[in-house]
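Researcher: Structure for this, please.
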Amino acid sequence: MTIDSGLRKFVAPEYVFGLGARHLAGQYAIKLGARRILVVSDSGVIAAGWTADVIKSIEAENIPYVVFSDVSANPRSEEVMAGSKVYTAEQCNMIVAVGGGSPIDCAKGIGIVCSNRRHILEFEGVDQVVVPIPPLICIPTTGGTSADVSQFAIITNLQEKVKIAIVSKAVVPDLALIDPETLCSMNPYLTACTGMHALTHAIEAFVSNAHSPMTDIHALEAIRLLSQNLIPSVKNPADLNLRSKVMLASLQAGLAFSNAILGATHAMAHSLGGYLDLPHGECNAILLDHVMAYNVSSSPERFDSIAEALGLDLRGLSQNSRSQTLLSRVREIKQTIGIDRHLGELGVNRSDLKALSRHAVADACLVTNPRNASIRDLETIYEEAL
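Model: Predicted structure, token format:
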């Protein structure tokens, strides 16, 4: 494999990985100078008990706090602005986010608004956040979004029915406390969707036109870990060893995509989620193999490396057969873990495809897709996934 000699940067937060990491939130908050903390979470994570564990660690250090939990599955700009008002009114100086990508992205948005004093929708795009956000500690509870280590924040604009991508090293958390035990409250289908989300991160990062030797290492390791552990994890949800391997894969994939960025799968999934308020992980899972089929001709040798990381033996196969073997394996994984729905079953109609494609083509993630894609190309991919 040829080494890219171009300049590349790599950003990552400090992170603590392992069982019980969530209980360290209070100790680290003290080290980061916490005086009053805004804890951002959602109702599901609170019901699972993970937020209470984090709050207990904060209380143990006698740090005042306030909880903001009005966060939707796809965090909305209105929720970010409401959370920023709570942060300001309560005179907080730190944010602790507990949950999946939704609370973490909302927390990032709150930090952006509180530091920069502008509406969250004004920060769409790359490097638009000028003033650093307040100290941010993230405790992820899903094994897929990797928002706890990324320089992405995805916020829904309800009025325009679109998700905006904010990409900036200013939103990289100060600390991620990555505790595999939190995955045990996920049901099998959510485990499957978030695991496929992590696989999408890794695959898109590896073939991104902004990949580097550093991101390649993390992306391929994530693919290997998921190939070996995702299916057993779905079937054995209480197995902490399997959960730990999937959480580690999510971390590896996050470090890869945060720095190599993504591609058409995410651009299209963002459009779907914003337009129809659909689950992001499931959208990525449904679209992944269709986008891979579109992209594979652009860099066949890199897709061969992905196939090998998935455990496939490509020896003696033609290029076309290698590509089909890879796509068949991705589809087999999806089928085995129960992701067998199509976009039509999620409520997507043919009449939606033009609008979806117009939004997707403007998404920042499309810039690093390995093959150029027009509105018509994206419309065709959506159509194939119906």
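Researcher: Any notable elements?
Model: The beta strands are 14-17, 37-40, 65-68, 94-99, 125-126, 136-140, 152-157, 162-167, 175-178. The CA atoms of residues 161 and 251 lie 30 Å apart.
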